[in-house]
Protein 1
Amino acid sequence: MHSYGYRANGVLSLSLTILALLCTVASLSGVILNLPPPSAHVEVVNINWFQKHRSGNDEVSLTLNISPNLESLFTWNTKQIFVFLAAEYETPKNSLNQVSIWDGIIPSIDQAKFRINTINKYRLADQGNNLRGREFNLTLHWHVMPRTGKMFADKIVMTGYRMPHEYI
Amino acid sequence: MDWQGQKLAEQLMQTLLLAFAVVAFVAGYWLGSFQMMLLIYAGGVALTTLITVPNWPFFNRHPLKWLDPSEVDRHPKPQPVKSKKKPTKQK
């Protein structure tokens, strides 16, 4: 502490140590809160078309009404949330098929509760012709990206959807 | 900066940084703004630097009192006593 250099060094190293500590405490502060879990509702408004390609793969086009409420995921330490909707179904060959059909990035709590009417953003195609009459789940997955700390993910599974029995 | 000043500078630095960290965290959490926390803490670090790094007069209130040079003549430096016999390795 006898020279400018030593004092500046002391301030710098202690301030950075405390900054790391602040970030650690901030990342833990969000975990303590016991907020209600988020909710989501997805409705298949219309099946626009459903056909079998020449390659033999089924593909379907849906119009969806997606209305999630992810406000409770936002804490002061949340930077943004990545959210995607996946169609999940079982076929004789694979016990779990996951097709991402819509996604979005929610940058703030003001935009965490919304309602969107959209056709599937990404193609919902099967590796084969297993979609006719197939029961499927629509699962809303989300990844919470904090400013500091661990990223975590969760999902809501919505069951009871069924593909049409005939190509249209 | 004298000895007391150095001690004071170090204690001031630690206290100020910790206090600003606590204030910054509470304010940031209260306002729900991570940016506010970082801004308050950055301000605190800048203020701490300003207070503890320069050699301010209040760090020099306890100057060391050196003896007057005339004391040297009155109290000559004791000479090391020359030993009469050299230590020998073999006996």
Note: The first helix of chain B runs from residue 3 to 31.
Protein 2
Amino acid sequence: MSKTIFLVDDSATILMSVSAILGKAGYSVEKAGSAEEALKKLNAGAKVDLLITDLNMPGMNGIELIKEVRKLPAYRFQPILFLTTESQQSRKAEAKAAGASGWIVKPATADDLLNTIKLVLR
Amino acid sequence: MDELTATFIDESRTLLAAMEGGLLQLEQADAGDDNVGGIFRAAHTIKGGAGVIECRFIEAFTHIVENVLDRVRAGDIPVSPGLVSVMLACCDHIGALLGVLVAGQPAPPQEVAAEGDALRAQLGQWGDDDGQAADCADGSTVPLSEAVTASGGGVVSSDAWHISVRFGTDVLRMGMDPLSFLRYLTTLGEIVTIETLADAMPDAAEMDAESCYLGFEIRFQTRAGKAEIERVFDFCRDDCALHILPPQSKCSDYLQLIQELPEDAMRLGEILVRIGALTQAELDAGLAAQAQPTSVEFDGDESGARAPLGEILVGQQAVRQEVVDAAVLKQATVKDRKIAESRMVRIQADKLDQLIDLVGELVISGASTHLFAQRSGLSELMESTSVLSRLVESIRDAALQLRMVQIGETFNRFNRVVRDASRELGKDIRLAITGGDTELDKSVVEKLGDPLMHLVRNAVDHGIEPAAVRAERGKPHQGTVRLNAYHDSGSIVIEVGDDGGGLAIERIRAKAIARGLIAEDAVMSGAEISNLIFEAGFSTAEQVTNLSGRGVGMDVVRRDIQALRGTIEVRSTEGVGAAFCIRLPLTLAIIDGFLVGVGSATYVVPLDSVVECIELQETTTGRNYLNLRGEVLPFVRLREMFEIGGDVPARQNVVVVQHAGQKAGLVVDRLLGEFQTVIKPLGALFQHLRGIGGSTILGSGEVALILDVPALLALVTSAEEKLVSPAPSRGRPSGTPDSQHLILQPSE
């Protein structure tokens, strides 16, 4: 049974391109265009093996989302990755403190992305 | 072949030679660790290079050799003659594999592969793959190993990485499963052993089910570097205690890499990160620790001084002490070496050849300018052209000097030949080398290898008698083969001698008669008979051995030497020894010549062979001899010899020439003085001509022929001998066998 990856990003381009890569690699992909939308879906009991979120989003940002997700009993121990850039080193620590498992540095190749996912997925 | 491969092959050949030299030294005397280290490094560099050009068969074989050498270096394996022999055979095999690479074959052919397998089997006796833990030879690393052992009971294996990781208690709460890291690790390599440590696990009552208390000691086999391994633990690096210790073999890799780093001034940390011994994160941690004054420092003698980064890194178990030491040494030597290297310039051979060609043209046009200046009668012009020609002469000498190399390197190669051959034959033979610093043209040195090989092998095989015979003759048990080189009147003389049995004159004579080389009743001196061994198809070895005696030896040697405008002769005393003497011209391109005129023709005599010039006093005997201060001097009339017409002038001159201790006179019309001669080879059409060695262009644009003095001397001598002896062919010397023209007997 294929693993489900929940992708949260305000950019439709990113959602489309990343989900294409993940789909091709055999993962099921759930998408959300904002942190609020993502939380709503998770609260509704969506089955997710891995959450990948952008940090900079209008409204609730990625770090707040990670904190909220960690409060949900079903997702306390699920891996969470965040998308970041080299210039956001300080936010990396912040996100880790919020409970993120790891990160993907943008721009990333498809291989980088898939390798990182392979590492954190059970 | 691409440039990288060519570089690799070139470099590897040099390294193999160094390895071989080191191994031979190792056998003779315990030359110390440095020597073993050098041998190891050579093997190691070849392996590394093979990896870079992705030549797997060389890499794989050299890797095994390297492993054994590493253990020799560490003192695990004692040096034994058996080991050295196998190692030398391995050198040969690597050489053969390089040949395969040069030939562009994707894999070694069957016989080479079989040879490799046999050697692998032999190397197996030194157990290169056993699981014995090989600690660093360097005592300074022992505490480190102990620390690892104490913390986890893991053992630092000789060829596996050791990863020690204690996960942070929050790792599960971060959404990470420790197993994920281990699983991901296997994508980089193979986990050989893994030990789970639960020491940190508290009593059940106090245990938090959501915390992680585990640690792992992992032996990990991989081709990946330290940074790659560290990247696996990237996400938990900040929260866990991670130590990645390189395998033993990697340790020496680092040392090698340090050696190979470009000669840039670098900081210690930079060096270690560059070679992969240290990751950037480890360096950052080390630097942070350095910036913070620690209690140790306050207690220390040098209060206020910061601990060196190297010490901190070793303390943090980030790198091994010996790697730090090597890096520090590298730092120190970078400056010195930079200075030394700037004194040497490597240059392509064809650029040099081009320079020599141009200098040749310069000499010719200089001569022409000089000639016209003389004709013009302008004293100022003449003066300036004579300055010019002196300068040209200096340039010529300097340019030719560029091509000169010492023959020592070529000679040293024969240490191995003599050693192997004498072992095979069960003889005890040493090679004595003298005159290794004698310089000669590089192109000549290259072509000398084969003939010398023949001569040395012959000396070992046929020359030196078996031990029993030597004892009977009262000679020392150990036979001696000598290689010697020296300058002699414009020639280079190379001698290959032995203190063996010498040539068996009667056997050679009998054989020569049997082969139809000489008439049964021929009257010949001992030296003449000795030199018959240079005739094609001549071999006196009763037993054909592996080494020589195939009957193709000496005539090939003579042909090789002749191709270099040289001569070869043999001196032998039966029962005492034999010596082969090779005479070669000093240079192949430009010589100092002496210009003489006969009728309308002009000839050049190499100045080195000219002794003196005298006026010819016509004798009444009609024989071609004259009395030179009580000495009998045979001479030849060039006018007759080259069939030049015209009237004989009233005064004729004799140019007395000398070669290999023998003198003769050349009768010419005019003496024209010294002349810088650029040798232009004669075309194939003229190659059969005797007495002419080449041609040159005079300042006037005319062509002059260069006389081949050795050949002329031989003509003179043999012609006179024919006159004296009752041999059938009286008269002109053209009917004598080829050999006697070019092989000279010493005047005894």
Note: Chain A has five helices and five strands.
